[in-house]
Amino acid sequence: MIKREPYNGLGTGFVNFCYYDKGQRIVKLMGLLPANIKAQVIRVKD
Q: Which range of residues forms the domain containing residue 39?
């Protein structure tokens, strides 16, 4: 996202919302890839 406001206001709040967990879930539900993907480490024993 490109934010072009001279102060922290509504645009900044929206960008922050989209970045954090709740906003990323909405992005994922829309069929887009989230910006930050949490990696899972799974250990498999033979």
A: 1-46
